[in-house]
Structure formats: structure tokens, C-alpha cells
Design goal:
This protein has 396 residues and is of the alpha+beta class. It contains 8 helices and 6 strands. Helix 1 packs across helix 2. The radius of gyration is 55 Å and the shape is elongated.
């Protein structure tokens, strides 16, 4: 007798021992049973559904009649509805491209999350920024150094000039502004030379930047630039006045180029610090030497132009000032009503400091001459004479 056909959705029961009847045979499902609509509560489902007594506990869950591709993670994607027209249905695919015989492989176990904290990455290097405080400090340092150089040059040149004239600068009671002003005129030539050297260095840098091998060769040579001033030391006795200026200048250039060549690929603050210290000392040495040359030059110019280019002076006094010789002259004032008794002419204005006037006779020279100091005050008058005609008649 044949029964109803077996339900394909029902999994076969486990075999029982040989010869033993099935203790609890499951009744066949009714023929008109409606398939389970799938997991999830329906519109009429209750929160606590009653169990089905006819359900087999060993049966597999019924498949979803309308599975969604996103419902199962291992479901195969739908086939391409529009295959390429170039594909041949009977072509033997490449053995390496044959489909996997197991289309639904078991999912790989998810890796356990790594709870070890990642090491902190070092901060990205940033380019240093110069703030306004550092900028003001750098400018202030340069201005201070320039002021010190100007003052030192003014003092050194004045000292050399007065020594060449047989005097001392302390006689004139010069102020700081006087020293600074006396240094301006003599620094035009060094300033132009420094600007020309700077432009030349910039041109060389651009020329070497076009061909790196040129710069590499120049750097190898500049490592020995410190030897240039040492090579000039044996020549010093030949012209001391010249090498007093040449040696410090070559020392500044040679040591600076040597430091640049040796620190181009690495940073060495100690080398640069020592180089700057020696360069500053050499700078003051060069300034002193150049100031001495400039001071002696001004002394020679004073001696040549004293008679014709310095202001002519006439002094009137109630008392005899004892100004005699050197091309000067004096006479007694005989005009009626004059409060002055003596007139002194043939004098030149040398310097003025406060209420003191420094005068020299028109025939004055460093080897044979007298410097007169006259104080302005009551009973004394100083007149300045201009014009070549009046100069010729100053001593009648």
C-alpha cells in the first residue's frame, strides 16, 4: 500500500538500530500545508506562539521562500543577466578560472580585534618660524654691533689723526655723537666694497646652483680657506701698515668660507660659534687698522689745506692774549670808543668744543706750531673772515 509522497523539505531521520522499530514515527505532513512564511513575526503572530506538536525536533529549518541576497553572508550573487556576447557557451574555460566546486565555502573565522594600543607616531617635522621677538632681537643685535663699530672707528681715526698732528683727542673733549659723525665719511669706501663682495658671492652661488658638480668641487677647495691668512703671516714685516689691514680681512673671509664648507651637510654650532668669535675680533682689528690709515690721511690733508681752506679768524680782547708767531699778527686798537685793546689776526679755526675755540696760526705745522685755546666770554670777541681778498689783508 503506497502512502503519500515524502516531503522533500523534510530531512531524513537518523537510522535506528538494525531490527528496531522507530519508537516515535513522525506523521506525514498534511498535503495542503501552507509553507512557513519565514522567520519573524507576522501581522497576526503573538509574542508567545504555541509550539507545534507535529514538528520534528530533528528536522532542518525550512528555507526562506524569497531569500534576499543580503540575508545570508555566504549566498552567491545573482548571475549576470546580460552575459558578454563574445563568450562562447561551449568554450572550455581556463583551468585557473574554473568556478569553485564548493560555491558556499564556510566563512572564515573573524580575526580577534587587536586591543594592543598602537604606538604614538612622532610628530611631523615642522619648519621653524621666526617670531617678531626673534626678529627684533636679531635687528637690535646688528644695530648694536654697527653702532659699536662706528664709535670705535671714530675714536680710532680721531686718535690717529691727532697723534699725527702732535696732539691727543682728549684735548678736544669730543662726545659720542662727535665720534660717530667723524666715522661716517670714512666708511663709504668699505661699505661699497662690502656690497660689491656680497653681490659677487650671490653671483657665484647662482653660477654653482646651475651645475651641482661645480659647487661640490668648490666646497672641497673651501675646506682649506683657513690656510690663506696663515700663508700671509711671513709677509707681514715687508709692509706692516698694509698687512695690518689685509690679514684680518683674509682671516674673516677664510674662516667664514671654511665654516660654510664644513657645515654644509651637517650642523655644527660649536664651529660656527668659534668662527663668529674670531671674525668679530678680526673685524675690530681691521677697523682699527683702517681707522689709523684714515686718521693719518686726514692729518696730511689738514696740514696741506690749513692756510687756504680753514676759516680765518680775528680775535679782539681787552687784555693781551700773548698770541705770537707762526704767521699770526697782532696790533693795538687805537680807535676811540672801542672796548678792546688788542686785535689778533692770521689765525685759523681748528676746532670748537662747547665755549672753547681752538686756534692755530696760518703757518702752523705738526713739527713746529702752537695750538691756542680761547674761551668765549665777556671782554673777548671772535670774528670769522671769508673771501680771498680779506685773507690777503688780514695782517696789515
Amino acid at each position: 500500500m503506497s502512502g503519500p509522497p515524502p516531503d522533500p523539505r523534510r530531512a531524513p531521520a537518523a537510522p535506528s538500530p538494525a531490527g528496531a522499530p522507530d519508537p516515535d514515527p513522525a506523521p506525514p505532513p498534511p498535503p495542503n500545508r501552507t509553507p512557513d512564511p519565514g522567520p519573524g513575526p507576522g501581522p497576526d503572530s503573538s509574542p508567545n506562539p504555541e509550539p507545534n506538536p507535529d514538528a520534528d525536533p530533528n528536522a532542518d529549518p525550512e528555507p526562506d521562500p524569497d531569500p534576499s541576497p543580503d540575508a545570508h553572508p555566504n549566498a552567491d550573487p545573482e548571475p549576470d543577466p546580460d552575459p558578454s556576447p563574445d563568450a562562447h557557451p561551449n568554450a572550455d574555460p581556463d583551468p585557473d578560472l574554473r568556478p569553485d566546486p564548493n560555491p558556499n565555502p564556510a566563512p572564515a573565522p573573524a580575526p580577534e580585534p587587536d586591543t594592543t594600543p598602537a604606538p604614538a607616531s612622532p610628530p611631523a617635522p615642522t619648519s621653524p618660524r621666526v617670531g617678531w621677538v626673534e626678529g627684533v632681537g636679531a635687528v637690535g643685535s646688528l644695530v648694536t654691533l654697527l653702532t659699536a663699530v662706528l664709535f670705535y672707528f671714530g675714536w680710532a681715526s680721531t686718535d690717529a689723526e691727532t697723534k699725527a698732528l702732535g696732539l691727543r683727542d682728549t684735548v678736544f673733549h669730543l662726545s659720542t655723537s662727535d665720534y660717530l659723525l667723524r666715522s661716517v665719511g670714512a666708511l663709504y669706501l668699505p661699505a661699497w666694497l662690502a656690497a660689491g663682495i656680497a653681490l659677487g658671492v650671490l653671483g657665484l652661488l647662482r653660477w654653482t646652483a646651475a651645475a651641482p658638480e661645480r659647487l661640490a668641487g668648490a666646497v672641497r677647495v673651501l675646506r682649506f680657506a683657513w690656510a690663506v691668512p696663515l700663508a700671509l703671516v711671513p709677509l707681514y714685516p715687508l709692509a706692516p701698515w698694509l698687512f695690518d689691514l689685509v690679514l684680518p680681512l683674509t682671516a674673516i673671509g677664510g674662516l667664514a668660507l671654511n665654516a660654510y664648507a664644513r657645515t654644509r651637510d651637517r650642523r655644527d654650532l660649536r664651529l660656527w660659534g668659534l668662527t663668529l668669535f674670531v671674525c668679530v675680533l678680526s673685524l675690530f682689528w681691521a677697523v682699527s687698522s683702517y681707522a689709523a690709515i684714515a686718521g693719518r690721511g686726514r692729518a696730511e690733508l689738514t696740514e696741506r689745506t690749513l692756510r687756504d681752506e680753514f676759516p680765518a679768524v680775528v680775535v679782539f680782547s681787552e687784555k693781551d692774549l700773548m698770541i705770537r708767531g707762526g704767521g699770526s699778527c697782532y696790533r693795538r686798537v687805537t680807535e676811540k670808543g672801542s672796548q678792546y685793546a688788542y686785535e689778533y689776526a692770521g689765525l685759523r679755526l681748528f676746532h670748537v668744543s662747547g665755549d672753547r675755540i681752538f686756534l692755530v696760526p696760518r703757518g702752523w705745522s705738526p713739527d713746529d706750531g702752537t695750538l691756542y685755546v680761547v674761551e668765549e666770554g665777556e671782554g673777548r670777541r671772535v670774528d670769522l673772515i671769508s673771501g680771498a681778498g680779506r685773507r690777503a689783508q688780514e695782517c696789515r
